[in-house]
DNA sequence: GACCAGGTCCTTG
DNA sequence: CAAGGACATGGT
């Protein structure tokens, strides 16, 4: 608890890897990851899964289908994720970006990570976390995701930094391998869900006392 | 019934 | 630039 921030990051990565090992996380094709990344904004993943199921039943679970769909039918399918009106607009904006700027996901996949990230951040409703989730889980790029859980856990571990700083720290510490990026983020979120209660956060106690 | 969830945008100070 | 509110449904 007295090391540099980057060594603290490395410690988190090491400890959680030992604790969880490999866990499957965010399976699904690129279309599904893009859509899920928007739907999960400020929303429980279980509700996102339901919405993805409804989208599939209505043949709407793809970027190209959303591009063609009416707002009403999208809203109906994703209502259970909350913020359904604004999320429908965001999905439409994202689909429009992918189709009109790149001609589809397959072509988009041929471009470098930084270019894609800049583009995604220009889409209304796509912020840093959503963009990085799309890059990391949808396009298998080494772009580390800092979400609320990660931010919180880093605070527990004695790294009270801004999200942008944390992203740089993890990217400095991790090997440049997309699989490791995905796995590490998954570990952190699983750990947070397991140990961060509402009233008292057990993770803060565990991570400070011991490695 | 209050409180929170794997954010982002817009408005204020 | 930091802080606060809006967006909305579903679970505890």
What is the multimeric organization of the chains shown?
single chain
Q: Using only CA atoms, what is the Rg?
A: 18 Å
Q: In the CATH hierarchy, what is the superfamily of the largest domain? A: Hypothetical protein, domain 2
Number of strands: 0
Low-confidence region ranges: none
Order of H and E elements = HHHHHHHHHHHHH
CATH class of the largest domain: Mainly Alpha
Strand content: under 5%
Question: What would the average pLDDT be, to the nearest integer?
Answer: 94
CATH fold type of the largest domain: Endonuclease III, domain 1
**Residue share in helices?**
55-70%
| Structural class label | mainly alpha
The first-to-last residue Cα distance is: 9 Å
What is the total number of structural domains?
Answer: 2
Shape: globular
Q: Let me know the largest β-sheet.
A: none
Task: Throw out a few tags for this protein.
mainly alpha; Endonuclease III, domain 1; single chain; DNA-binding; 211 residues; 68% helix; 13 helices; 2 domains
């Amino acid at each position: 608890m007295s090391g540099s921030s980057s060594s603290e990051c490395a410690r988190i990565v090491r400890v959680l890897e030992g604790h969880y090992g490999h866990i499957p996380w965010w399976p699904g094709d690129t279309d599904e990851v893009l859509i899920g990344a928007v739907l999960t904004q400020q929303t429980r993943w279980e509700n996102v899964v339901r919405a993805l199921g409804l989208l599939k039943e209505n043949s709407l679970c793809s970027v190209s289908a959303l591009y063609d769909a009416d707002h009403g039918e999208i809203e109906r399918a994703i209502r259970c994720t909350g913020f359904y009106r604004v999320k429908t607009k965001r999905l439409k904006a994202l689909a429009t970006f992918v189709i009109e700027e790149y001609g589809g996901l397959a072509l988009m996949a041929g471009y470098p990570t930084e270019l894609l990230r800049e583009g995604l951040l220009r889409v209304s409703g796509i912020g840093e976390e959503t963009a990085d989730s799309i890059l990391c889980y949808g396009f298998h790029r080494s772009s580390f995701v800092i979400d609320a859980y990660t931010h919180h856990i880093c605070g527990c571990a004695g790294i009270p930094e801004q999200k942008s700083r944390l992203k740089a720290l993890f990217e400095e510490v991790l090997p440049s391998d997309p699989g490791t990026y995905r796995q590490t983020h998954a570990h952190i979120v699983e750990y947070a869900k397991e140990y961060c209660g509402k009233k008292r956060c057990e993770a803060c106690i565990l991570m400070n006392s011991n490695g």
